[in-house]
Amino acid sequence: MLSAALVARALGECPDLIIHVVAVECDTTILPHLKATLDACLAAGQGRVTFDLIEADFISASTGITRDDRLSNFDLVIQNPPYAKLGKFSAPRIAVREVGADAPNVYAAFLALATAALKPHGQLVAITPRSFCNGPYFGAFRSYLLDQIALDRIHIFESRSIVFADTGVLQENVVFSGTKGGSRDQVLLSTSNGHEDKESRRNVAYTDVVHPGDPHQFVRITANDEDIEIAERMLSLPATLESLGIKVSTGRVVDFRSRECLLNAAEDDAVPLIYPGNLRDGVVVWPRDIRKPQWFRPLTQKDANMLFPEGWYCIVKRFSSKEERRRIVAAVWSPERICSPVAFENHVNVFHLDGAGLDRNIAFGLSMWLNSSLVDRFFRTFSGHTQVNATDLRSMRFPGREMLRHLGELAPETMPAQSEIDSLVDKAAGMVDTLV
Question: Do 124 and 203 fall within a single domain?
């Protein structure tokens, strides 16, 4: 379908153009249909269309595994790559590294190799999951891709269930185009609910999409002018977690690796074990009937090293989806409720001071700030998958220490309604210039 659509458009818009299509496919069930489509393109071209059909794995044929010299020097590459992961030491991943990119899964490998196969000023168009836009998992790949190509256009499908609904793919998808060695002036952003709905579109500055001061090179997709204003407001904040002396890391307990330490009832030497299900209305409620063990009893020194000492902590769920009311869900663990060391399970992120607890008001201030609509809107501009990574949180800017402390002083013991959170944050945010 991609081949036919591209050839039909080129024939219609460029009457004198000579087109040569190189199509790569390894699925033997699809090959006969692809061959028939290419034959139809050849017939429609009336001498202006030729093609090569390569029966091969694209990664192998584009690298030193089984290189095919026909896979280079393209004006255009269009693809809808598969989504499977690549093992760190697998032959395909090693082969892609030799091209200059590190690709943790197949779709990233396809994009990297397609980029390498372009002529200068050649264009890449692809439909992929949005997950490559942020997070450490795609960091090295993102660096390679954005160094090689300039993004021209990005289209987002707002619904995760309409596009590819027949295949069971429920990732958030984007269609994007980029030019190898192109100019980095503007990017056309567009959105629609599904592939048959009317789209809205807008041109934005390239620096609004890939911020020049961002070492992680997150791709930020703002839906409207309000999103750009929110991004500018967030990026102008005075502090980072590093400047605040605050660290964030994933919980240390991976439950399936510590089964012998997990308990469903209190025993001597057992401490609270906190799962995402313990986060409720801005506080950590423990114990709760959530079908998860609620106690952790260390049996070895290695187990004991997984604990955090008694103290105040701000906790954030590691997984959420775009359909949820808030992408970032934060809560406070209070030592006043339970005076004990505590174990945090791996599906939460923990804000701490080098492994120890936070100041009480800083913990509540962080929780209020992270639960605000301002932060939610900003986070949605660059996160298109279900994870809230510790790296994502580290990459964000924060209010200064005194503003966070002031916000914590205003915070009630249980999280108020969203409108009240936003009102308190807005009031405190007005103090950014003076309370840093």
Answer: yes
